[in-house]
Backbone:
């Protein structure tokens, strides 16, 4: 399956899931009280940090490890699946046994049954992540798409039914367990024959060197969470579940921007290490193209999302108008750090990934601890922006030092200028600011058209030939 078809399938699944997620927002914010919705969001925050631990960095290892022998590569997937499944079972047992001490450590009170259901869902999702990596690596985008849509649709349907029956947050947790179990069983049935490689034929494939890489990814992922997720704990502890609910809704609309870029990210991240090895010139071009697309999508979302936000959500979830565009700026910075960091992963077993994430995490935690108690949600957004800016600068500088790639900074300047102008127009009090944003966006499109004119021409030639033939 070629790259465009894969992107289309990934795009379809991502679009479907995110549409379902955002469709649930106006429903859940009206059925649940603001305190209940804040409690649900805090459970999601716990899920985010625990999933980093349970996935063990295995997706990164599976994509990074270049093995020429197809059977040995499949054996690596086999080992990753076994390891993830075993540790997920251990995690459930430990959490169930120590549920009371764990609950006492949380900054807000939560129902213990909700925490237990969350643990089961996390374990199932972690095993599923390995299987989904298999589909991505072996270009089984169609299977990936069908299963992802099945999981999302099933969970959404169960959530709606249980919410209307009055089960509240617990109903949301139950729906996650049901859908994850169903999809896991189907996914296992699709790959079990390919992964059923005897240990007599190929021994355990995860080496101590791999474990060192996994450890660096796990630690680094925790630092990433401190950069993007830890603010939920500070907000909940400092200003309460209600303010957390408001912040979470704004954050979801900002993350909508990241989701629009997800199909390209999923396609690119699964092949970027191979592309770097095979053709560095093509790697640089595809990396620049991906970044420009990411910036363009963020600029579009700055124009669109504030208006959608004000229409679909209750009035008591509205916050300062500058918060949403500012969170989208954080997303743009994250695109840069994600796409321009390859040298930090290819050299020294990913050590510098951990170091950079540790530095930015420390900055984020210090700023959150200082700003959130004083300024609430506004302080959290400011802290995230500062920490992400430092992180992006370090990733770009150190990656270029370790693995130099001939990027031309001036080629990104038009994209940066257009995006920043659209952002500034969104936060200042200017009459007809939307019109000026649209004019700037059209100019942005023209700049990118001339920048990638050969690529665009090659892409539309087949359609022009078909039309001429007809």
Residues:
């Amino acid at each position: 399956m070629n790259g465009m078809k894969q992107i289309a399938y990934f795009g379809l699944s991502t679009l479907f899931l995110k549409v379902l997620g955002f469709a649930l927002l106006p429903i859940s914010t009206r059925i649940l009280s603001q305190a209940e919705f804040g409690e649900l969001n805090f459970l999601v925050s716990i899920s985010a940090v625990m999933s980093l631990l349970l996935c063990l960095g295995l997706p990164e290892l599976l994509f990074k490890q270049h093995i020429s022998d197809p059977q040995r590569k499949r054996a690596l997937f086999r080992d990753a699946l076994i390891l993830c499944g075993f540790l997920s079972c251990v995690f459930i047992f430990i959490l169930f046994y120590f549920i009371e001490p764990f609950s006492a450590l949380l900054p807000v009170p939560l129902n213990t049954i909700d925490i237990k259901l969350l643990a089961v869902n996390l374990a199932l999702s972690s095993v599923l992540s390995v299987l989904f990596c298999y589909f991505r690596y072996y270009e089984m985008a169609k299977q990936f798409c069908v299963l992802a849509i099945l999981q999302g649709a099933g969970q959404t349907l169960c959530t709606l039914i249980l919410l209307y029956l009055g089960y509240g947050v617990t109903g949301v947790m139950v729906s996650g367990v049901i859908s994850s179990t169903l999809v896991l069983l189907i996914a296992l049935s699709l790959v079990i024959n390919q992964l059923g490689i005897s240990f007599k034929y190929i021994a355990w494939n995860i080496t101590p060197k791999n474990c060192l890489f996994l450890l660096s990814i796990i630690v680094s992922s925790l630092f990433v969470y401190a950069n993007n997720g830890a603010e939920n704990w500070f907000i909940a502890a400092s200003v309460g579940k209600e303010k957390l609910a408001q912040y979470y809704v704004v954050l979801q609309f900002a993350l909508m921007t990241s989701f629009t870029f997800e199909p390209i990210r999923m396609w690119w991240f699964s092949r970027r290490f191979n592309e770097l090895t095979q053709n560095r010139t093509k790697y640089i071009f595809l990396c620049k193209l991906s970044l420009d697309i990411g910036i363009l999508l963020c600029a579009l979302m700055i124009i669109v999302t504030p208006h959608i936000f004000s229409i679909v959500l209750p009035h008591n979830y509205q916050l300062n108008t500058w918060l949403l565009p500012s969170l989208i700026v954080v997303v743009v910075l994250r695109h840069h750090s994600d796409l321009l960091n390859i040298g930090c992963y290819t050299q020294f077993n990913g050590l510098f990934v951990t170091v950079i994430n540790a530095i930015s995490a420390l900055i984020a935690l210090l700023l959150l601890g200082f700003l959130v108690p004083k300024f609430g949600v506004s302080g959290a957004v400011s802290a995230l922006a500062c920490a992400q800016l430092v992180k992006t600068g370090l990733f770009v500088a150190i990656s270029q030092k370790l693995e130099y790639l001939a990027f031309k900074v001036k080629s990104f300047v038009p994209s940066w200028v257009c995006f920043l102008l659209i952002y500034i127009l969104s936060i200042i009090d200017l009459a007809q600011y939307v019109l000026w944003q649209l004019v700037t966006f059209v100019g942005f499109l023209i700049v990118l058209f001339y920048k990638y004119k050969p690529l665009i021409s090659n892409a539309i030639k087949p359609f022009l030939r078909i039309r001429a033939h007809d």
Q: What stands out?
A: The chain has two domains: 1-206, 231-470. The longest helix spans residues 280-312.
